[in-house]
What we know:
The chain is an alpha/beta fold.
Amino acid sequence: MDLNGKVALITGGKRIGRVVAARLARKGMDVVLTYRGSRREADETAAEVTALGRRAATVTADLARPDDCRAAVAHAVAAFGRLDVLVNMASIYRSRRLADLTVDDWDADLNVNARSAFLCAHAALPHMRAAGGGRIVNIADWLARSGRPQYTGFTSYYVAKTGVIALTEALALEGAADNILVNAIAPGPIVPPPDMGDEEVAEVARATPVGRWGGEDEVARAVVLLCETDFITGETIRVDGGRHLA
């Protein structure tokens, strides 16, 4: 799909989402960004898109709420007249010992990491059909894509991200006849969490076959690939520097 003049909705406009928005803008896309508690970061991302010569808008949304997801999609269509791409980037990544994992923790992780992707896609699909097609890109995780949890303390996260892969495949089957292609990206070591110490950062790099962290742009480039393709659908592509091989 030629992205020039098309419209993308990105759920999350900071860190990796900011780099994704900028790369899509460089491809000629207008961008709508959702945020919940990070308005400043969303506004900064929108300003960067505008500086690149494209239009940008932001909208507040609690993506666990169906009405908010529908409103975010409606906002994109009202602002720019169409919706061609949905990038489901909203995510929670946190560790909880299984003994300490509460029902509220479970619900929050599943709501943000999996439910929101379904709700946004469900709201976006009619508009994509009306436009003659579209692309949906979800964010999974390299461990879920590899079929093994490997690390303790991430039960709800792992379950949610495995669900994202299943959702991607099911939506791809449903959307293919309408030229709506649905894929996912399974990132590995892209950027270190803010609370990770230097030695652990170095240890992860050593455990990755390419010997380093990837950086945000590796995910952004994969998003562009999956938006531009006219034939790939139902795939979950690992962007992990070969980490799954180690």
